[in-house]
Amino acid sequence: MTGQQRVLLGVTGGIAAYKSAELVRLLRERGCEVQVVMTRGAREFIGAATLQALSGRPVREDLWDAAAEAAMGHIELARWADCVLIAPATAQCIARLAHGLADDLLSTLCLATDAPVYLAPAMNRLMWAHPATRANCGTLEARGVTLLGPGIGAQACGETGPGRMLEPEALVAALLEGAAPGPLSGRTVMITAGPTREPIDPVRYLTNRSSGKMGFALAAAARRAGARVLLVSGPVALSTPPGVERIDVETAAQLDEAVHARIRDCDVFIGAAAVADYRPRDYAEQKIKKSAASLTLALDRAPDVLAGVAALEPRPYTVGFAAETNDVERHAREKLERKQLDMIVANRVGPGRAFDTDDNEVLVLWPDGSQQAFGQAPKRELADALLALIATRSGLSGHGMRP
Ligand code: PMT
Prior knowledge:
The chain has 403 residues and is α/β, with parallel strands linked by helices. The protein has 2 domains: 6-177, Rossmann fold (3-Layer(aba) Sandwich), CATH 3.40.50; 188-284 and 293-393, Rossmann fold. It has helices at residues 18-29, 40-43, 48-55, 66-71, 74-80, 91-98, 105-112, 125-129, 131-142, 168-178, 213-224, 252-262, 305-310, 328-338, 379-394, and strands at residues 6-11, 33-38, 83-89, 117-121, 146-147, 151-154, 160-164, 188-193, 198-201, 204-206, 228-233, 245-248, 268-271, 278-280, 299-301, 317-324, 343-348, 359-365, 371-378. The chain has an 8-stranded mixed beta sheet, sandwiched between helices. Strands 2-1-3-4-5 form a 5-stranded parallel beta sheet, with helices on both faces. The structure holds ligand PMT. Ligand PMT binds next to helix 11, helix 13 and strand 16.
């Protein structure tokens, strides 16, 4: 979407409703027409007069308002919108939409519109994590609704965790730039990110130092490039980039299963996760006691997710990463060839390098022997450059040739 668009902004009853005023202001500043629709609950948190003054339009609140319906009925409003953004979207609102209720103006509009619907969830972290909310979000996403956020951080209830509404600037960027046509418009990109955890007993696991920053930066960049993005992530403390669909996993086996469940729809696969190569052979149901002087753990190979994707027929354009301490280029080229990849991104690891850093330095290799180096830069910038290369080299952008 570009500026000059008609945004129907739904505001529901959460404390984050105070941010809706700023959201209206920013959307107007970017040239959008904004029509606010408030729920009854929203009125407890923010006055209609504020939103009316900022949007320059009377706020609509009631399905049964005869005067307002005479001016622009709910069906007309649904047709008027180029997109519907509900911010904040409470757990209650998400549940109602998932169940197709139509007992107030906002839920009725959402049923009556064929414009894209975006939700900016805002709720307590436990409400967000509740299986009912997870299932409702899954239902809505499967119907094509896009979730923007939530963010992670301090919450109004005093707790910390996922559930904060994204800041208005991030929502506007997602709405106006995230869906902009780009070189990967119409394509689906799957990215793995973060570490895996391989349980030893109920309190211990094997893991690594990956923060997920590189993979999440790639997901945001793929979205900026216009793609539909599936992000399969190990345990990390990062917010989901706006417009990205995230699937959380813990172990290499779960990652493998999540990837293969959706890979058939994907045009590109990027393996940025630091996946365990080995996992404990046995899981101790009870905590292992420190009785003996030493302990030996038997480890078995974990599934190689990347090699599994590369072996599919047909397969997506398959991009691996190589994290190496030494002989970076040699080891990376060996992985590129052994796993039959289309492209590999090599990074040198060590104290303050690659893992859990904001910057990175990479060397990209292709099977035809060509390569390209990128000096130290923020992961966000590298991610944009890598996605541009992938779009061109894969031929998916329509401008390039598959090597
Ligand atoms: O997450 P950050 O803190 O931002 O750090 C970024 C990073 C260093 C993790 C990232 O840039 C990176 O290099 N990711 C790959 C790490 C890794 O596991 O490299 P590897 O050389 O061991 O694996 C090679 C490739 O095989 C990788 O694409 C990996 O995802 C994949 N693999 C590995 C093992 C396995 N069992 N399954 C796999 O799919």
